[in-house]
Design brief:
The structure holds two protein chains of two kinds. By secondary structure, chain A is α+β, with helices and mostly antiparallel strands. Chain A has one domain. A five-stranded antiparallel sheet of chain A has the order 1-3-4-7-11. In chain A, strands 2-13-12-9 form a four-stranded mixed sheet, with no helix packed on it. Chain A has a two-stranded antiparallel ribbon with strand order 5-6. The N and C termini of chain A lie far apart (38 Å). By secondary structure, chain B is mainly beta. In chain B, the strands form four sheets. A six-stranded mixed sheet of chain B has the order 13-14-8-10-9-15. In chain B, strand 9 and strand 10 form a beta hairpin. The chains are: A alpha+beta, B mainly beta. Chains A and B meet through helix 1 and helix 3 of A and helix 1, strand 11 and helix 2 of B.
């Protein structure tokens, strides 16, 4: 994948030295593009103790929202803390308007769901289904950051995690076949593309029926909402 | 030019081996031991079964094989190119994979087949594999359903495969594809729109095999 231009994006509360590259698209794009950088950071971090690495991350965060000037809170898992209905934002350095926003509006816990097309009841593999109302937008300018790929940010179950509460370790792999197979009315698109806004429902398969839901495509720190 | 001579009654025409090709039975068939209406019974096949044609004989006879059964039938009106209730799957619906349980109720399953002129791509989600147009072939399994079960199964699968959308447009639709053995089945394949998304954003699986995607 070629990248014509690297776009430095800052997440309020994100380590300032950790640039997110909206390259290559699709999550893969994001994962490979941004993930490449993140991996480098992660490997570097392995040389340090976990505590040191966490301290470094937390000491180097953007402390205020570039758009509103409000204080940003980050937990010990490098997740920016949000309330349900409150947007997490990625903002290009030096700008105030976010390039990417994501909001978890509500989370409903379910014991089972209907197998799409087949009508049978199925149960979660990890313990609990979470039906999440989510919205996201990506600035049209994100398309300038890539050449052949499509600029987008993923919105499927594979980029979400859950924890039992703030500062607690995040569990991923909520994208089970059970969650994929659930009948979901008004299902969200799998990603939001440049210039688009998306809102819809998403099914996760989580080990906890309450706690924190996390959006974190790179698994290096994203945003978290209590549910 | 020598005059045309009809085969004497009871003479068994010689069988000529041909390159294998796939077809589906159009009705319940009786297999015979030799290419002759007077030959003995060699087995029977249900309507809608996938068969491999292995040889031909004068008079429109073909030797076919299906699982452990083989024998002769007349090709005309008994075999067809496309299976109306045949579905080719290449990802999580394959045998032993995570969504295989939804593929129940089939009357026949043919393993180790290949869909011609296609390619396989994977997006960021471990469960999402997409079949696109391509220059090679993709490993598939063909499931054959009966006339009774088939329409309902296709309707269920249509719904099951309809959820993934990008920019409000579905990523898969049910399309008829040709396999490398010449037979045709339904499969869930990218549209012109989603193929662009997948090819520009996904990872190409060079083996064409979901089980070897690394």
């Amino acid at each position: 994948m070629k990248t014509s231009q690297k776009s430095a994006i800052e997440r309020p509360g994100r380590p300032r030295n950790q640039k997110v590259l909206l390259a290559g698209a699709t999550v893969l794009a994001l994962t490979l593009g941004a993930g490449g950088l993140v991996l480098a950071n992660s490997l570097g971090a392995q040389a340090e103790s976990t505590t040191k690495a966490s301290q470094k991350q937390l000491a180097d965060v953007a402390r205020t929202d570039a758009q509103t000037g409000e204080k940003v809170y980050v937990d010990a898992q490098a997740q920016v803390i949000k309330s349900l209905g409150e947007a997490g934002k990625l903002t290009v350095e030096g700008q105030k308007k976010p390039s990417f926003e994501i909001t978890v509006h509500s989370v409903k816990t379910l014991d089972s769901c209907t197998l799409r097309g087949f009508g049978e009841k199925i149960t979660p593999e990890n313990g609990h289904f979470l039906l999440v109302d989510v919205s996201a937008s990506l600035a049209a300018s994100a398309a300038n950051a890539v050449e052949e790929e499509i600029a987008l940010m993923p919105l499927d179950a594979s980029v979400f995690g859950v924890s039992t509460g703030e500062n607690q370790k995040v569990a991923y792999q909520l994208d089970t076949v059970a969650s994929y197979s659930c009948e979901v009315e008004n299902a969200a698109d799998i990603a939001v593309g440049a210039g688009d806004e998306v809102r819809g429902m998403l099914m996760l398969d989580a080990p906890y029926d309450s706690g924190q839901i996390v959006y974190d495509p790179e698994k290096t720190g994203g945003w978290t909402w209590g549910y | 030019m020598s005059p045309t001579v009809k085969n004497p009654q009871g003479l068994i025409p010689p069988t000529v081996t041909v390159a294998d090709y796939g077809r589906f039975t159009t009705k319940s068939l009786t297999l015979l031991k030799q290419p002759s209406a007077k030959a003995g019974w060699a087995g029977s096949l249900k309507k809608g079964m996938k068969v491999t044609v292995q040889a031909k004989a004068d008079g429109g006879w073909v030797k076919i094989k299906s699982g452990s059964k083989s024998g002769y039938i007349k090709e005309k009106d008994n075999l067809r190119l496309a299976g109306p209730h045949s579905v080719a799957v290449y990802g999580t619906l394959r045998t032993g994979q995570s969504a295989y349980n939804v593929m129940g109720g089939f009357q026949q399953k043919e393993m180790n087949q290949r869909i011609s002129k296609t390619a396989l791509y994977q997006l960021w989600n471990r469960n999402w594999t997409f079949l696109t147009n391509g220059s090679k072939s993709v490993v598939t399994e063909q499931f054959q359903y009966s006339d009774q079960a088939g329409p309902s199964m296709l309707k269920k699968l249509d719904r099951y495969e309809s959820q993934l959308k990008y920019q409000g447009r579905v990523m898969y639709t049910r399309q008829k594809v040709r396999l490398t053995d010449g037979s045709q089945s339904w499969t869930y394949k990218t549209t012109l729109f989603s193929e662009k998304v997948v090819k520009r954003s996904g990872r190409y699986i060079s083996s064409g095999d979901f089980l070897k995607r690394s």
